[in-house]
Design a protein that fits this description.
- This protein is an all-beta fold and about 200 residues long.
- It has two domains: about 110 residues, Cupredoxins -  blue copper proteins (Immunoglobulin-like), CATH 2.60.40.420; about 50 residues, no CATH class.
- It is built from one helix and twelve strands.
- Strands 2-7-4-5 form a four-stranded antiparallel beta sheet, with no helix packed on it. A three-stranded mixed beta sheet has the order 1-9-8, with no helix packed on it. Strands 11-10-12 form a three-stranded mixed beta sheet, with no helix packed on it.
- A hairpin with a 2-residue loop joins strand 10 and strand 11.
- The longest helix has 5 residues.
- Pfam families: Cu-oxidase (PF00394), Cu-oxidase_2 (PF07731).
- This is Plastocyanin-like domain-containing protein.
- InterPro entries: Cu-oxidase_2nd (IPR001117), Cu-oxidase_C (IPR011706), Cupredoxin (IPR008972).
């Protein structure tokens, strides 16, 4: 699966209104990756993002990063200190994706000209940056469940079939089922052995 065009708030890069800011402002960005199958990156040349929340939950340890990385359907809230006047592209690290619309212009008051882009310094995304430093190890779970995600290419009438622990889910029988007990603590360990992105969530 691939995409020919990208947009932020319904507009491709270079279209629509820019984000207008003033020097010295602290701007809170709420970013949602609306894709169901692609990860996204965002950088703003000469600026850092202080991550304050992930998926709407405040992080224990807000920390600055040069790039935001968002998985499919993931949300990040981050504060940007506006200290680098100019007209900039807030956009994806991939040149081809920016060229196809993945970005938005950030324009400082009193600045004009062609929006500028520059790649950020090398950086490896790590969620532990936002965790409590030296946390107390959690108690051991009552049970652990290992789940291996695999794909059978064109296995059913030319369509791919995805499996958990070698079993595809059957919509008619609602199988397979994991039997769990109320009040027990379970650790889920998931490994994606395919070349596709697989966001996972638990219905409550």
């Amino acid at each position: 699966m691939g995409y020919d065009a990208f947009a932020i708030n319904g507009h491709m890069l270079g279209h629509g209104e820019p984000i207008r800011v003033q020097t010295g402002q602290r701007v809170l960005l709420h970013v949602l990756n609306g894709s169901a199958g692609e990860n996204r990156s965002l950088a703003l040349p000469g600026h850092a993002f202080t991550v304050v929340a992930l998926d709407g939950n405040p992080v224990p340890h807000p920390a600055p990063v040069p790039v935001l990385w968002l998985g499919a359907a993931e949300r990040i809230s981050a504060i940007v200190q506006m200290t680098n006047p100019g007209v900039w592209v807030l956009g994806d690290l991939a040149d081809s994706d920016r060229q196809n619309g993945m970005g938005i212009v950030v324009e400082y008051a009193g600045s004009s000209g062609v929006p500028q882009w520059a790649p950020p310094p090398p950086f490896k995304w790590d969620y532990r940056l936002f965790a409590t430093p030296n946390p107390t190890p959690p108690a051991a779970p009552d049970h652990s469940i290992d789940m291996l995600i695999e794909k059978r290419n064109a296995a059913e009438n030319g369509f791919n079939v995805w499996t958990l622990n070698d079993k595809p889910f059957d919509m008619d029988t609602n199988q397979p089922v994991y039997d769990i007990q109320l009040g027990k603590r379970y650790r889920l360990r998931l490994r994606n052995a395919t070349d596709d992105i697989h966001p996972i969530h638990l219905h409550r």
